[in-house]
Design a protein that fits this description.
2 copies of one chain form a homodimer.
Chain A (H helix, E strand, L loop, with lengths): L3 E9 L3 E4 H7 L6 H6 L3 E4 L5 H14 L7 E7 L5 E3 L2 H8 L6 E6 L4 H14 L5 E8 L10 H4 L5 E9 L9 E7 L7 E4 L5 E2 L1 H23 L8 E4 L4 H11 L10 H4 L6 H11 L8 E8 L3 E8 L1
Parallel strand pairs in A: 4-6, 4-7, 12-13
Antiparallel strand pairs in A: 1-8, 2-3, 7-8, 9-14, 10-11, 13-14
Helix pairs in contact in A: 3-4, 7-8
């Protein structure tokens, strides 16, 4: 296994912000209802931007901050709302930025698909096939939600996040990297999106799933890693809903300070939420070398996956 | 690196066969034109079957022939024509067959996406995370082609192939496994599919790409593997078009006997073509332990990828 480092993070949000007030008026909700119920103050709708525009801007943002950006061996994009079946978003980025030929692929693995993309990138670095990977999470949910459905319309946002990771040859000591990925389709009709239909979410059932399977997953992860939650600096969860994240923290018996949240100003951007969280945390100075963190993805599939890593 | 073995292959073709005659009549083509130009005698259109039905039947077919099918740790599906953005086809299979929780994801990587899916499965086995993987290639192209476009309508077919691979612990000697994957988007507008549009293919440009990039790719692969084409028993290419496959053989200076083709009766099924070829070759007794073969994917992206492996 090889050590990896996060070289740079980038994000992109659409120009158009949607305030709670606008949605509360349209959906005939009490003033303050949305923030109280979801923690969200605003969200973004891509009116002018395509999904590939957003992904591209997030990548440009990440690369603008990276000193060493040559030798990108893999571009991998996680999404649930792409229109680009072939060529995919990753190919679009490779072409538009005129990056040298590399492996490009997009993956569909539910709201937490960034976790799968990250892990595949790590495996490619471990195998010695590549040195660097661009991992992208992007979703344009405003286009696929039923705008009259309170459960999804108030929560979901458009956005993109990109992470450049690289083999870290400077640090000889092996850094921890453990994953635990579980897809269980038994009740997967509670969160679906098929092309030609609208996104469907049974909020009550998703809540139940999210607060139980994630906790089980993290217990399984810690078990594999043979460490305890006390050794973990942050859990960086998919930003689904503040109530879900609080319930997970309660069930794990950890203070909310340990559970990173930025949904308040970022909304729930599905596949983009974890790379956007990494970006915000880096900007806030929260990620320090040697810190152990857990990236936690969950959602449609139902796919639950976590990565314990030393940053 | 761990040794892997192909445990079982499965396929599914739709009930509805479309003879050349039917297309030649509809498209006002001379009798015999299609076979002469493409090598194809018939193709299959899924009228009653959904894409997930086809994938499921191919998996059932594979599993029916596998002695040891427990402990499947990964289900990965390559496609270019799915409607199931979330949950994906892999999740559908896990749920429908009531397989225990495992990693499920679908990938979009052009017509040769099975190559990427296979390689990801291999990496997961190498990493020790899983013991077995189900790799699926499926496409339902009849739904997305312009039925009046001769270039695609006569060539493309619907179908599914599934491969169960497993860590091979019996053979201690390391077996060769080398890959060479290259996505180059520079001219990727020659083969595209976006939701809401029809599949587009510029046949002339695709021909040019296919017969040059594949040859370069195989040269790169052999270089990496430090062996020559003489040591290779078969090249198992994506079944795009008999003319393309013949031109690749010519440029590689190998006889057509070394270039496996089944497009004559199977058509061009995009992501399904390589696993269907593996199935047919196994049934024909062409795959023998220790044989070195090259799986060769190419198509939309433009993604070109090859895997040299000892079966």
């Amino acid at each position: 296994m090889k050590n990896i480092q996060i070289v740079a993070n980038g994000i992109y949000f659409p120009r158009k912000q949607i305030a709670n007030e606008e949605l509360e008026n349209r959906l005939h909700l009490e003033k303050g209802y949305i923030e109280k119920r979801t923690g969200i103050k605003k969200r973004y709708y891509a009116i002018e931007e395509t999904i590939e525009d957003m992904a591209l801007e997030a990548v440009k943002n990440a690369l603008s901050k990276a000193e060493k950006k040559e030798n990108i061996g893999l571009i991998i994009t996680a999404t649930t709302s792409t229109n680009l079946l072939m060529p995919g978003i990753s190919n679009y980025i490779q072409k538009t930025l005129e990056l040298p030929p590399c492996i490009c692929l997009d993956i569909l693995a539910g709201c937490g698909g960034y976790i799968n993309a990250f892990d595949i990138a790590k495996l490619y670095i471990d195998s010695g096939t590549i040195e660097k990977a661009l991992i992208i999470g992007v979703d344009k949910l405003s286009e696929i939600i039923d705008k009259e459905d309170v459960g999804t319309a108030v929560v979901l946002s458009d956005g993109a996040g990109a992470t450049l990771i690289a083999k870290d040859e400077e640090n000889k000591k092996e850094r921890m990297y453990v994953t635990h990925m579980q897809s269980d389709g038994e009740k997967n009709e509670i969160l679906t999106y098929q092309y030609g239909q609208k996104l469907y979410m049974n909020g009550k059932e998703v809540y139940k799933y999210a607060i139980t399977n994630t906790v089980k997953n993290i217990e399984g992860l810690l078990n594999k890693a043979k460490i305890s939650l006390e050794d973990i600096k942050y859990i960086i969860p998919h930003q689904s809903n503040i109530k879900i994240m609080k319930a997970i923290a309660t069930r794990l018996h950890i203070p909310m300070e340990k559970m990173y949240t930025n949904i308040q100003t970022r909304g729930n951007t599905f596949c983009a939420s974890i790379p956007i969280a990494l970006y915000d945390m880096q900007n806030e100075g929260l990620l320090k070398k040697g810190d152990k963190v857990i990236l936690l993805g969950y959602g449609g599939g139902l796919n639950t996956g976590s990565i314990l890593m030393e940053v």
